[in-house]
Design a protein that fits this description.
Layout (H helix, E strand, L loop, with lengths): L1 E2 L1 E2 L7 E5 L3 E2 L2 E2 L3 E10 L10 E9 L5 H16 L3 E12 L6 E2 L1 H10 L6 E5 L1 E2 L7 E4 L13 E5 L5 H14 L15 E2 L8 H13 L1
Parallel strand pairs: 2-12, 7-8, 7-10, 9-11, 10-13
Antiparallel strand pairs: 1-14, 3-6, 4-5, 6-8, 12-13
């Protein structure tokens, strides 16, 4: 089980360079970010739905493609119970400096500011340098006021278990813009994720739909 927290064919190579800008009143050096490929996630479930979601995905640490694909497919199945369909999910393979492969607020803000990826965004990272350290973290509108670049993002550390459930759980936090948990057996939004805990209540679905649509 994983405790989570919230408030939790390839395209041509693209090279993006970040011009120097100010962070905490100090100029930072140019950051090379190499988007090595873009490709759609295939095999997404197509449930009956009246709302659609476009998802951006950035792999910062050369995760196995099948792990990411399976996790996003499971997330799509979970959201399907709320009549929400992931209409598209684009995976970017990104090469960044070692210092930016981990979730770390100052560096991750810099990366999120320049990376050309749709929001909400799933970032598959090498790990986390946040304290306390969690396997995944969701950042919605309500807990991003001091770090606006990170709004509507989910950060997943390599090694997270129950990966599809973790991704669905954290994305639901972002879409609801809420850190609330529900420890009813089998509920996706329990404080500790677990295999088979994928259910969402009608109230939770309504919150995802209403807040997600508004944002």
């Amino acid at each position: 089980m994983i405790q989570t927290v919230s408030f939790r064919p390839a395209a041509a190579q693209v090279v993006v360079l970040l011009a120097a800008f100010m962070v905490s009143s100090c100029a930072t050096p140019t950051l090379p970010v190499n988007v090595e490929s873009r490709q759609p996630i295939s095999g997404l479930p197509q449930p009956a739905a009246d709302l659609q979601l476009k998802l951006g995905i950035a792999d910062l640490d050369n995760w196995p493609e099948q792990d990411i694909t399976t996790a996003v497919q499971e997330t799509a199945r979970v959201l399907g119970q709320c009549r929400i369909r992931i209409a598209s999910a684009e995976l970017l393979r990104v090469k960044v400096p070692e210092s930016h492969r981990y979730f770390d607020t100052p560096r991750s803000r810099m990366l999120a500011r320049i990376l050309p990826v749709s929001k909400p965004t799933l970032y598959f990272a090498a790990g986390t340098r946040q304290l306390p350290a969690f396997d995944a973290e969701a950042i919605g509108r309500g807990n991003s006021r001091t770090r606006p670049e990170l709004a509507d993002t989910v950060w997943i550390a390599r090694g997270a278990r129950d990966l599809g459930i973790v991704v669905a759980h954290e994305l639901a936090h972002v879409l609801m813009d809420s850190g609330a948990h529900d420890n009813t057996p089998g509920n996706l939004m329990a404080e500790f994720t677990a295999p088979g805990s994928t259910q969402l209540t009608a109230r939770q679905c309504a919150k995802i739909r209403e807040t997600g649509t508004r944002n």
